[in-house]
Amino acid sequence: MRQTLKKNRMRLEREQSLIPRKDQARIQIVLCYPNRYSVGMANLGFQRVYQLFNRQDDLYCDRAFYPDPEDEREHRESEIPIFSLETQKPISEFEVIAFSFSFETD
Question: Picking from 38-42, 71-75, 90-94, which range would have the lowest pLDDT averaged per residue?
């Protein structure tokens, strides 16, 4: 699990996010993409929904992705939950879990 958390921190460091974190937001949701980070972040629709959610003053949106292939086995064997990218909380701790997926086969 530590390796996965470290990988997520490195991803965040490389991003040029213009969305500030709002820890005190009234509603905190997680937007999930049912594939790896690289596939989800290449999806402009996913990025747009993430941006629209975070434009709301009383709402903070985090992101979650399916584990990378090299991390999938560890997740299954250790029963590590899927957790969010920014706050690294299990998605079960969010008030709202939203999903974004494309109609293309990816």
Answer: 71-75
Cα distances from 21 to residues 3, 36, 55, 62, 86, in angstroms, run: 23, 22, 11, 9, 8
Token readout for 95 is: 């008030």
The length of the chain, given as a count of residues = 106
Would you say the pTM of this structure is higher than 0.90? no
Residue 53, H or E segment: helix 44-55
Task: Report the alpha-carbon distance of residue 30 to residue 47 in Å, rounded.
Answer: 13
Residue 79, phi-psi category: left (phi > 0), alpha (psi -120 to 50), beta (remainder): left
The CA distance from 37 to 50, in Å, is: 14
Structure token digits, residue 24: 């005190």
